What does this fold into?
Amino acid sequence: YGQLLKPNLSFLVVFSSVIAYLLVPGVHFELSKVIILFAGGMLVTGAANAINQILEKDSDRLMKRTMFRPLPDARMQRAEAWLFALLTAFAGAALLALSFNLLTGILSLVSLLLYAFAYTPLKKISPIAVLVGAIPGAMPPLLGWVAATNRIGFEGAGTGGWILFAVQFFWQFPHFWSIAWVAYDDYAKAGIKLLPSSAGRTSFTGLQCMLYSLVLIPISMLPRLHMTGVIGMSVAIVMGIIYFYTSYLFYQHNDEKSARRVMFASFFYLPIVLIAYLLDKTVLV
It folds into this structure.
């Protein structure tokens, strides 16, 4: 069940949701609220990961990195996995809806549906899957913001959530593509198409990483308008420059070492930037 939920991946997703919740002006740290938001997010995200594994059971059997997951390894049947996924999904969404607001619960299910039933099947059809997957991938901070404000509009109290959504949205492209480059051979066995070029491991992937990481720098400065101070913004700029530089090296060398460099930079970027925003939180509206 732990493997089915992918707790490591789920943790990073839920972490961004909790940070976004705490960044809302006027919201203070309450352990009970944070625990509930974390638990509800883990349940829904884990359910999305479980459904992903159910739908990709046959593909997972072909890849070294996934062949020993419970479904391809025949340690669990599809019916059991579906039951577990549905129970965790609705339990998580209900917990969020009852503890915060209905909009938060609905958003969590929308995110799950996009990830499981749009992104997952598209992975075998077109690289546009990365764009589609980036939408549910960027929803956790929006979800955390909505949990505190009960607003999703592009004006007033809803603006901050969309800014954090944009930061996480653009962060994902170099993250996804660097992983897809490193795991290209494994993905090819399963017919998964995530690299931006149909030619495979070309320098075009590094170029795209450069473009998205460059756009991310000014976007990561926007929280200065609503939720963080100069220090938080400065940390985001520095991390963005590092992210861009590793992408530039990836474009230059187009090898596994440089792809892994981008991948590890992406792992550090998001938690460091979000924590910096929070530690330098302001009360600007």
Summary: Residues 31-55 form the longest helix (25 residues). The chain has a mean pLDDT of 93. DSSP finds twelve helices and no strands in the chain.
